[in-house]
Structure formats: structure tokens, C-alpha cells
Amino acid sequence: MNTSLTLLDRELQLLRYPQNLQHPSWQAWDAADEYLIEHVEQNISDIAQLNIRIYNDDFGALACWFATSKPALISDSYVAQQACQQNLQQNQLTIDPSHIFDSVNIPSSMVDLVLIKVPKTTALLEQQLIDLQAYVTSSTVVVAAGKANLIQKSTQALFDKYLGPCHTSLAKKKSRLIFCQPTGDKSHTSPYPTIWHTDKPRFEISNLANVFARQQLDIGARFMLQHFSKFPALENKTVLDLGCGNGVLGLHLLAKNPNTKLIFVDESHMAVTSAKHNIQRNLPDVVNNCEFIVDNCLDNFAQKSASKEVDLVMCNPPFHQQNTITDHIAWQMFKDSKACLAKGGQLFVIGNRHLDYPAKLKRLFGNVSVVARDKKFSILSATK
Ligand code: SAM
């Protein structure tokens, strides 16, 4: 893995996170980070005097580069926040914890310079631009950067609508910058959370902007719900909804098994907040049986959960880390699940049939069985 970012006579050592599970050809920054850094260094003076906000820094390249200017960092991703801390440390840099924010707890001070890494989820960008309205003036400088294919006309339209007129740079190494001139208009409200309903039972599912399946029930999750009857008896057991998103799986399981303890885990702050809201809203009587944890897979389960082990894990694993397609997160989820399961406990996984989850689970648990399958999905189970 290339770990040295060398730019403008300066060098940073940057690692992806978690470091041990990454493909050797990946690196912790991209051409859009470099383009943004070069633009700021060459065009904006006295940055140490400015109030700076950095949004969606993938692995901390921007945080490290601008650390001495004491920026506020805002991210929805716990993994990105961990990466950032790791890389600050590795470069002997610090950012005061009071400057580190998640997407559901944003800073409330005016800002002079906003640096945005355009996220994969347009809705997250939209929410962030709406949040920014209150804290920018017509003299705030807003520069966003992203892969050219992420910067569509519709992306520019969001800047135009929520902050003010924007234009883009030429493409450089397949990346572009967006320059936006805020008008000071603060009149737009947010379309998030989005709300949809399940049919039977009819639950109201609320989704903050960066939550998976924000518009409707995921088809994989639907298939899993149809096969809950194949789960073992869960009376007074402890269940983990790993990669919970809006919590739709755990919510349905709790509705059928109100005496079950349910632990919801996701790396997205917006997901965990939405999951908690959805239990409170739909099953208020059982919310005290639940834990809501932000973590990278189950890295810190022992510290963050009151339970020592669990009886069942259900999981609809992700196959992206930011813009990279990967199965390393699924693999870590399987390994961490095995570590947290009680002896005899079971992991239930839903995945596309073409993925090699059966081989992975067999290797890890020594057994795997197919609980259900259709043309697209398999539900697999492995027992510890
Ligand atoms: N369980 C939900 C459902 O079925 O609708 C969401 C499933 S979605 C395919 C995968 C979820 O895993 C997303 O909510 C994503 O934020 C979460 N995720 C991605 N990487 C993660 C990680 N490293 N640790 C924990 N959760 C992660």
C-alpha cells in the first residue's frame, strides 16, 4: 500500500482503516484530496486565521494536512473518524476532541472556509449543505472536491439551491473541485429524515440522510424478514443486529420476541440514531431492552455493550467502504460475530448468491447451512 502523500514539499504518512484488512493497491487519499489541498494552499492566504470546517474526510488526509489550522471535522462515519485519529497520531498531529463532530451533532459556530469531500450518498451532501446554511455568510469560501463521476449536474444543483451559485474546475486526474459562493439565504428546510412504512406489521421507518435503504425496504432485508420463522426460539435471548441501518430487522424481531434483548450496531451515526428513533417510535415498551452502539463491526463490543456474549447475530453486510467495492467488512463482521457468540450461538447472514459467503463462513465456523434461497439471495447460517 502506498502510504506516503508527498505534495508541495511536505510528506504525510497515511493508512486506511482498519489497516490489516485492506487491499495492497488501495491508499488512504485520492486525487481529489490532492487537488483540494493544492487549491487551498495556492489560493487562500492566512488559513491559520480562519474558522475551517472539513466534511467527509475519508481517512484523515485533509485533517492531517490542515491540523495546525484547528479545523472542525464532521463525518457520519465512525470508521473515517477512527482513520483520522490514527493518521493524526502517526504524523504527530492533534486536533482537539471538541473539534470532532459526527453528522448528528454538528458545530454551531460561523465558518470562514468549508472544505467538503463529496460523499457517495448525495442525500448526505444535501443534508450537510442545508446544515451549513445557518453558519455561512456571503464571505464564506466553500470548496468541494470529488471524483469527476460523482460531480454531476445534480450535485452542482444542490450547491446552487442550498448555498448559492457554484461552478466547477477542470478535471485533473479524474477529479474536480466545486467552488460555491454562498448568498446567505437560510430559508431551505431538510427533506430528511425520509419516512416509509412496512406493511405487516405497519411500522413507520424514519431515515436520516445517510441511512441505507432510505427510500424503501431493502430487498435483501425483505427476504430475511420472510424467513425469521427459521430462527431458533429467542425468548430471553440476546440478539445482535450488525450493520443495523435504520434497525428494520431488529425492530421486526423485537415485535415477535418482546423479551429478547436487542443490540443494534452500525458505523454510521445517522443509522444508529435512526434505529433508536424507530424502536422508540414503534415499540416504545421494549426500548429499554435495547442497546444502540456506533462501532467498526464489533471492534469495541466488550467495552461498549453491557452483554458479554450474544445468542444470535443477524447481518445484511455492506459491500462498499466509501467508494471502494470490498468484502473485507463482511469478513470482519463474520469474525467479530464468531468472537461475540456464545457456544452454540448462530450467525444468520443474507447476501447475494454470487458472493462467496458460504466458503468464508465454512472456513471460519467449520459449518454453514442454507436457510433459504431465491434467484438472487441466500440466507446462510453458521453455528459456533
Ligand atoms: N440491516 C440494514 C438493512 O437490512 O436494511 C442495513 C444493511 S446495509 C446492507 C449494511 C449496513 O452496514 C449499513 O447500514 C452500513 O452503514 C453498515 N456498515 C458498513 N460498514 C460497517 C462497519 N465497518 N461496521 C459496522 N457497520 C457497518
Structure, described:
- With 384 residues, this protein is an alpha/beta fold.
- The chain has 2 domains: 4-180, 3-Layer(aba) Sandwich (Rossmann fold); 194-383, Rossmann fold (3-Layer(aba) Sandwich), CATH 3.40.50.150.
- The chain is built from 11 helices and 20 strands.
- The protein has helices at residues 31-43, 61-66, 78-90, 122-132, 153-162, 219-226, 248-256, 269-282, 301-304, 328-340, 357-365; strands spanning 4-7, 10-13, 52-55, 72-75, 100-102, 113-117, 141-147, 166-168, 175-180, 194-197, 204-207, 238-242, 261-266, 290-294, 310-315, 320-321, 324-325, 341-352, 369-373, 377-383.
- The strands form 5 sheets. The chain has a 7-stranded mixed β-sheet with strand order 5-4-3-6-7-9-8, sandwiched between helices. Strands 14-13-12-15-18-20-19 form a 7-stranded mixed β-sheet, with helices on both faces. A two-stranded antiparallel ribbon has the order 1-2.
- The model has no long low-confidence stretch (mean pLDDT 95).
- S-adenosylmethionine (SAM) is lined by residues 79, 212-213, 218, 221, 243-245, 248-249, 265-268, 271, 296-297, 316, 318, 329.
Keywords:
single chain, 384 residues, alpha/beta, Rossmann fold, seven-stranded mixed beta sheet, 11 helices, binds S-adenosylmethionine
